[in-house]
Design goal:
The complex is a heterodimer of chains A (305) and B (329).
Chain A lengths: L1 H9 L2 H8 L1 H18 L1 H4 L40 H37 L1 H15 L3 H15 L2 H6 L1 H29 L2 H8 L4 H37 L11 H9 L8 H28 L5
Chain B lengths: L1 H28 L3 H5 L6 H10 L6 H13 L13 H36 L4 H15 L2 H15 L12 E3 L2 E3 L4 H34 L2 H8 L4 H38 L5 H11 L2 H29 L1 H9 L5
Antiparallel strand pairs in B: 1-2
Classes of the chains: A mainly alpha (305), B mainly alpha (329).
């Protein structure tokens, strides 16, 4: 069973178009590297950057290993607290990816939910949701995320601010992404709704909720997958931007953006590695995920075959 | 026509009112405005008196109406953090943001359109491919990373350009401008390049795509057959037709410039409104946040309304359709 599934997967159009594009293979490899590094951070990282006991202030500002003053102990150098930059990077990607996935998930639940409900049921729900989406789409996503983040942070009492910062961030970035999913799924739902299988399901008396979840939903999820891949890259960049601006995750649990923010203070004194390595990692990750999304969009588009 | 304009204006006003309501709720119900204004020594009677004087005991609708009335008179209260009127703070910061956005927009158009035309006409040259590849990098790098890289290269390694602030500014009435001093111009270079890069790429690719499209049409072939010089064909006939979408996109992108100026201003510590907003969020300075929200909402709605009406003026087909079916959506 499994072998047959694997065989079918390896023989599919998707797999063939994947192997034909070296850039996509490279992007997939880099993305897999980041996912693996983030997942296995506690095993791979030479040091636990969250444990103050392992930090040695005497080792602060050590340059990367290949420079004249570098030590082999710290491959990519250390920051102002003696934190190993490579370890911080591994743990940082973990938080960046976590926030990215959670934010995209939230966008999908909200957007696809409103899109299918609105498209299938119509009425005032559709009107309100689509108007909201129209209005929100006129404002850049990053600005929406910034505003929502700003409002929620201000509304929280002081003590909870640090504690809930990650959730606030996920909420803000998730809110900034939902209109795209709502529009696409509503359009697809309007098409599916008039097909015969839906009429048949309705005639034999299946509950509308069951029709939506079990019959319509699977048929409108194709484009959502493409949007979600590109959305993940966007969410990772949004997270990094907000954290860089100092309104994202707190410095105690640094994401890539927070690491760049910390390192930025030392750019002028010559310690470039503290900020440039996390910047490079962020760009590489976002670019790879974006390339995968582009490929997926073309590969799933029957018009381009 | 009038019905269409009215409908758009009403919708725009509704959006601004909703945002104003969020600001109002933030302003009045997050924390205690009275606590934020009086010191620790104030007695309960003092607080009650202030509460009455501020109108915090009135009905919600009355309070909201007063908030909107004050906002219309640009009165957003006093900043908690800086202890100065918010309207004054914003007015001081406005010139910095607008000058940055203006220079970026001009830069994006002045570089983006020629590069787009060039890459559209000379598709196969290596220079065109270079421009396209470099522009790809421009879209994929996050704004703040571009800013950091430019600072590292031009301010730290080469040491030729300043990395923060506006340089020397000259006051013209209440407006402060950096356009009149050499250091003001020097300080503008890095932030405006950072801010314009994304828009530049967008315009470049749009002009290129439109040029490729237009050059395939019959009237261009006909112009060639008439033996017109290629300069006339390319710039007089082809480019002119690509400019309508470019104008609308540019109009819409002004909003993006405002949004991304928040990031650029923070990277370069540019004393504009975006930097003020980020600082306000960090300090939970509610009056500033509320005022900025309303201002940005107003700005975006105004831009979109203007672009919508511009479509109407530019595209004669829209007008004709509406004359046939008046009152349509």
């Amino acid at each position: 069973m499994l072998a047959r599934g694997l065989h079918r997967a390896l023989d599919s159009d998707l797999y063939h178009s994947f192997t034909r594009s070296p850039l996509t293979v490279a992007a997939a490899a880099v993305t897999a590297l980041f996912f693996g590094g983030a997942a296995l951070a506690p095993v791979l990282a030479p040091q636990d950057p969250f444990d103050p006991a392992t930090l040695n202030l005497m080792d602060a500002f050590a340059p990367p290993a290949w420079t004249a003053k570098g030590s082999a102990q710290y491959l990519l150098g250390t920051d102002n607290q003696g934190r190993d930059v490579l370890s911080a990077l591994l743990y940082g990607s973990r938080i960046s990816l976590l926030v990215g996935f959670a934010a995209v998930g939230f966008s999908i639940v909200l957007g696809v939910g409103l899109g299918v409900l609105g498209g299938y049921l119509g009425g005032w729900l559709e009107t309100v949701a689509m108007r909201l989406a129209d209005v929100q789409l006129t404002v850049p996503g990053i600005l929406v995320a910034l505003m929502v983040d700003g409002i929620v942070r201000t509304a929280l009492p002081g003590g909870l601010k640090e504690e809930l910062a990650v959730y606030v961030l996920i909420f803000a970035i998730g809110i900034s992404g939902w209109p795209q999913y709502a529009r696409v799924t509503r359009g697809a739902t309007l098409v599916e709704k008039n097909k015969e299988y839906v009429a048949a399901a309705r005639i034999i008396g299946i509950h509308p909720v069951a029709i939506m979840v079990r019959h319509v939903l699977p048929n409108v999820m194709g484009p959502v997958l493409v949007l979600a891949t590109i959305g993940l890259a966007l969410a990772i960049i949004s997270e990094a931007t907000l954290s860089f601006l100092g309104v994202g995750v707190p410095p105690t649990t640094p994401s890539l953006g927070t690491l760049i923010r910390i390192g930025n203070n030392f750019l002028f004194s010559g310690e470039w590695w503290i900020t440039l390595f996390p910047s490079g990692a962020l760009v590489l990750l976002a670019l790879s995920v974006n390339l995968l999304g582009d490929w997926l969009r073309d590969a799933l588009n029957p018009k381009l075959r | 026509m009038i019905a269409y304009v009215l409908q758009r204006v009403v919708q725009a006003a509704a959006v601004v009112l909703v945002v104003a309501f969020v600001s109002f709720v933030l302003f009045n119900y997050v924390g205690d405005p009275v606590n934020n204004m009086v010191g620790q020594e104030a007695t309960i009677a003092d607080r009650a008196a202030l509460r009455e004087r501020l109108g915090l005991n009135d009905a919600l609708v009355v309070q909201f109406a007063r908030f909107v009335g004050n906002a219309l008179r640009a009165d957003f209260g006093i900043s908690y953090q800086l202890q100065r009127p918010v309207a004054t703070l914003l007015a001081e910061r406005l010139p910095a943001t607008l000058e940055l956005v203006l220079v970026s927009a001009v830069l994006a158009l002045a570089v983006g359109i020629p590069c787009g035309v060039y890459t559209g006409l000379r598709r196969e040259t290596w220079a065109a491919r270079m421009i396209l590849t470099v522009s790809l990098v421009g879209v994929s790098l996050p704004t703040f990373v571009i800013g950091i890289l430019l600072i590292y290269l031009f301010a730290v390694i080469l040491g030729v350009l300043p990395s923060f602030g506006r340089g020397d500014v000259v006051a013209v009435g209440w407006w402060t401008t950096g356009f009149l001093t050499a250091s003001g111009w020097k300080a503008l270079i890095l932030p405006s390049v950072t801010l314009c890069l994304y828009q530049l790429t967008l315009i470049l690719r749009l002009v290129r795509a439109e040029m490729l499209e237009v050059l395939r049409t019959d009237y261009i072939k006909f112009a060639r057959a008439r033996g017109l010089p290629s300069r006339v064909i390319h710039f007089g006939h082809a480019l002119r037709n690509t400019l309508v979408p470019v104008i609308t996109i540019t109009g819409l992108q002004v909003g993006s410039l405002i949004a991304f100026s928040i990031i650029t201003e923070t990277v370069f510590q540019w004393p504009g409104m975006g930097f003020l907003f980020i600082q306000a969020v960090q300090f939970a300075d509610i009056p500033v946040i509320a005022a900025y929200l309303v201002l940005v909402a107003f700005f975006f709605v105004a831009i979109n309304l203007a672009v919508d009406l511009l479509y109407f003026a530019v595209d004669p087909r829209l007008r004709a359709e509406r004359r046939v079916a008046p009152g349509g959506a």
